[in-house]
Design brief:
Number of strands of chain B: 0
Structural class of chain B: mainly alpha
Largest sheet of chain A: none
Order of helices and strands of chain A: HHHHHHH
Shape of chain B: flat
Distance between the termini of chain B: 34 Å
Oligomer: heterodimer
Number of strands of chain A: 0
Mean pLDDT of chain A: 90
Number of helices of chain B: 6
Low-confidence stretches of chain A: none
Number of domains of chain A: 2
Strand content of chain A: under 5%
Radius of gyration of chain A: 18 Å
């Protein structure tokens, strides 16, 4: 893959890094827009597969960018994408953690913390909506998504069991 | 996160329970995965830049290589009918997990007010109108924070 692709990965993901409040899920819509819609690096279904892998594997979900980088530009792509998505937010955290203590109890600090909540919630719902549309291509797939969501909302069963069950039903040809 | 809390607060005593809550509230606010931010904060507190880098590497190295191995397997075998059938199931379930997390957050107490309007606006702008996130956030985030300040008066 060309250096141009690597540069594009680095640029897109370092911007994502600085807006990923709450982690990978909130930038899922934007990641989808960039990877599938703008650059056409993969299909929506492949994107959904990679995201599912990242969720099932240990470690932060944001590592889905390693998978995207790998798919787009091999090992170099994985390294560049991962560094790009981690470095800016880590540097910001490092700097802010050193000054934040001073503002303990400040009114604007509470307002910033509370004010971002509804936006984050909207982003998570948007992510769920878009990834569902990408992953599901039959009514049975939509049913699987709905049943999984219901299990997560009403029970304390570990998501890996749900992934396992869904994978088996896929293998059985039910999805 | 519960595992991280147990390790940091109860086993190693690197943070008190109160300090942990404080660090976590900051880390939820900043961009990036919360767990990564917590690692950077704790590392920075004890050993500055080197501590932060060590904590980050310790947290991410193993998952990164596991992810690469999985990615390689997916590239190699992803097109096989049986594998893609399994993935159809897992992807659908993974989507369900995201939907559930969004609904859980939406049902939380902190959202039961006029502020829910901002969540609806965000959903419409991002999911339905497909606006670029940066542009949208530059408008919506300051408005939402300003509205919170105004309501708190």
């Amino acid at each position: 893959m060309s250096e141009e692709t690597l540069a594009q990965l680095a640029m897109d993901f370092s911007v994502l890094s600085l807006i990923a409040v709450g982690g990978a899920i909130t930038v899922l819509p934007e990641m989808h827009r960039s990877v599938v819609e703008v650059h056409g690096w993969m299909s929506g279904a492949q994107f959904a597969d990679l995201f599912a892998l990242a969720q099932a594997a240990p470690g932060p979900n944001i590592l889905v960018v390693s998978l995207i980088g790998w798919k787009v530009a091999g090992l170099a792509g994985a390294a560049v994408a991962t560094a790009a998505v981690c470095a800016p937010s880590c540097v910001l955290t490092f700097v802010v953690s050193r000054i934040w203590q001073r503002f303990r109890g400040a009114r604007w600090r509470r307002a910033v913390e509370d004010g971002l909540v509804p936006v984050t919630v909207g982003l998570m719902l948007a992510g769920g909506y878009l990834i569902t549309l990408s992953a599901d291509h039959s009514w049975r797939a939509f049913a699987t998504t709905a049943v999984t969501a219901a299990f997560v909302l009403t029970t304390r069963v570990h998501p890996l069991w749900l992934f396992g069950a869904a994978g088996l039903s896929g293998l059985a040809g039910w999805v | 996160m519960p595992f991280a809390r147990r390790m940091l607060v109860e086993e190693r005593h690197w943070l008190s329970a109160e300090e942990f809550t404080d660090v976590l509230s900051l880390c939820q606010l900043l961009p990036g995965p919360n767990i990564v931010n917590v690692a950077v904060c704790v590392g920075a507190r004890y050993h500055g830049v080197r501590g932060a880098a060590a904590a980050f590497a310790g947290l991410m190295a193993a998952p990164f290589f596991i992810m690469l191995a999985l990615g390689a397997l997916y590239t190699e075998y992803g097109h096989l009918p049986a594998v893609s059938a399994v993935f159809r199931g897992i992807s659908a379930a993974a989507a369900g997990l995201v939907v559930a997390m969004g609904l859980k957050m939406a049902a939380s107490r902190r959202l039961r007010s006029a502020m829910a309007l901002f969540a609806v606006m965000t959903f419409i702008g991002i999911a339905l109108m497909r606006l670029p996130l940066v542009v949208f956030l530059l408008g919506a985030a300051p408005l939402s924070v300003a509205a919170t300040l105004w309501r708190a008066k």
